[in-house]
Amino acid sequence: MYKIKLFNVAPSMPAKLAFLELLSRNLWWCWNLGAIELFRRINPQLWKETGSNPLEFLNRVPQKRFEDLASDEGFLSHLGEVKERFETELLCSADGQIVRLQPQCVAYFSLEYGIHESMRLYSGGLGVLAGDHLKAASDLNIPLVAVGLMYRQGFFQQYLNNDGWQQESYPENEIHLLPLKKAYDTAGNPVRVTVPLPECQLKAVVWQLDVGRIPLFLLDANIPDNPPELRNITSELYVGDRLIRLRQELLLGIGGYRALLEMGYDPYLCHMNEGHAAFVSLARISHLMKSKGLDLDTVLEIVPRTSVFTTHTPIPAGNEAFAVDLVKPHLEALQKDLGIDPAAVLSWGQPPQDNNLGELSMTILGLRMSKYSNGVSRLHGTVERKIWTHLWPGLHEDEIPIGHITNGIHVPSWLSREMAILFERYLGPDWRENPSDPGVLSRVADIPEEEMWRAHELGRSRLIRTTRELAEKQLSMRNATRTEILQAKSIFGYDVLTIGFARRFATYKRAVLLLQDLSRLEALLCNETRPVQIIFAGKAHPADNAGKDLIRHIVHLARKPSLKGHIIFLENYDIHMARYLVQGADIWLNTPRRPLEASGTSGMKAAVNGVINVSILDGWWDEGYSSECGWAIGHGEEYNDPAYQDTVESQALYNVLENEVIPCFYDRPSRDVPERWTRVMKASIKMALGYFTSDRMVREYNARSYKPALEAYQQLVSAKADYAHKLVAQRARLQSLWSQIKIELPVADKEQSLMHVGDKFTVTSHVHLGDLRPEEVDVEVYFGTVNSQNQIAESHVEQMTLAEDHGKGDFTYKQSITCRSTGRYGFTTRVTPHGNEWKGVMPGFITWANGS
After folding, report:
1. In the prediction, which pLDDT does 216 show?
2. Which residues, in sequence order, are CB contacts of 363 under 8 Å at separation 6+?
3. Does the predicted TM-score (pTM) go above 0.90?
4. Which residues of the chain have pLDDT under 50?
5. Distance of CA 209 to CAs 27, 146, 180, 276, 621, Å?
6. CATH superfamily assigned to domain 106-407+702-717
7. Disulfide check for 138: which of 213, 267, 271, 380 has CB 3.0–4.6 Å away?
């Protein structure tokens, strides 16, 4: 076949419309209603047909239409408003260019990004969370750059066969229809990075995707320089092949960090979004050793203190690990490049007390290399501390340095047009800039119930219309009869209570909890005066047959004559479908097996639209729930018998639907607006805006992690890393002398058999420090309420005061304790290194009284 050269032909855009091309190449448009409506206004039907992809859309608009728009004063006025907002929000310079960030920045690494449905670089909640993180960082002008992989196929497209069994297809992403541009190094050349592999060099080019002010750099191995077996490394997301998966994560972490350096960035800290990104720490260690002439021990005092690690799942399968036999040859191939012993890397990814495991845990590697570690909800933080207690020997569970920063959603990306108009009208035009402001939240009460209900009804109507269209399409694809296809045009009612259940079909999410009792389910759905309808959607991982079987079960159930028209499963769940569901359902149902739901952001997206959550008290709902803003299934119990748990909680779900939810929805004594329901809607919106936004989430990351880590970096590397060298010397001193420490059991100056609120007593401890000095340690009294096993459940720590120096390393310490509340308490004493420098950095040093 002849070799051909490819080129693209775009419409000739009139000068007055030139901004459309700039707008189409920055994903800022996808969370700004005015920009979305600007594109849609050009040709609504074509906008829908092209999947809301501005590049494909503009390429298909007839030239005559552009010429007409260039003289349409209404359209030009609209374009001018969007352009002004674009330039203001993105801090554009006088020539319209985005003012780029300083080289010293936060580098955010994630294996997936869900920004818009036209960019298939995501699988589910983790990716959508990452996308919302970037959008909020842009809104807040956080100095952040992001790194990911450019998947040529992305995550699979889902369709079902006639039996309801999930099938997967992997269509190619068409690069020329995506708003990508080549990334360039400081010399103006396209960026290319190389990662050594055991058999050869893996090469990749880098694409740039602008997300508002945030550049997202995507590494692409599908280039002629690589042999065919390496080109598919960036083909699919979450591929099952362990070798490809390992190489994806090496490319993300090692290659991604090198790409940033090539482009002139100097990340002061790295944020690893889940363990997939943990290899970036190896690249940072190598770079700091080479660029600053530091030894490994010194760099190991810098990297963990300037890294952030977010873990998203307590499910074992979600905590990435690679067999040593697989990963070791790759570390050996990197050794010459990185200057790091593979044995050291393997030890960093294994528990401190057992370095002979047959695998390297990416979660452990991420935790070890990050002082700032967090789960993604309050309950999830508790679960993660319990899981990883063994990594910090000697620390009690509630002191394990894994905190929580609860996830949030980027409200403008998920809010319906109708709700957005209401918010602008009643919350004020600037509500987006600080949605949790008490003044903004107080004005939610000012939204008239009737206007809110009409806005919600429009969202439900859009959802039902879309459901009918998708049902018709699904049946046509499966060669259904003409009668079945015609029936699909009228399934589901516009004024029927609609339950939405859409998420990844993992078994712990229990998609069929509502389907356990078929007779009760049928009575609930098919009530003549108070009917209910349920829309299911979601994908199972290609290797998860149990999840696929749940989907098939729902499809078969939906075909039962008695339930037909009341249950449907919508295929190929994505961001586009999610938007319809969270804006149009009446109830958002979530039924995970507590405590396995780390966060669950879909319920937040529903809540901000006035869709009411009915959920197990797990993940974010454990924080967000109150009786004013939704319904809980159960009371937060945890069970040892899963089957028994399913039985109990399915009955609790039927009870809450029958006795509370359905009556509240249909109770309309005076008019057609359900007044009790709209009060819950308002409370739901207020709750979501008040805390569960990515605006709050990113502000929290900035205050608790980014700013402290940035300041730490400057302190650690200044003056030829003098402070880091001192930490190395101090660690060596602690390691050699810590075993000399002995602390006797504490003694109190009063009998504690019965104390009263307000009473005080003094605790005394005799401590032998050996050759360590008092200023090198903190002697602490550790106290708090105890559980039924007489273990301290909720701890408090007070630093004790040096009372007497006995010489030869022997000291007496004292501290008074005030009884501030009733209960059963316990106390002991301990010795830890002085200050905060050693807290949260593994492994720590700690000696308890009497060696306990």
Report:
1. 98
2. 275, 278, 311, 319, 320, 321, 388
3. yes
4. 852
5. 8, 10, 5, 21, 33
6. Glycogen Phosphorylase B; (3.40.50.2000)
7. 213
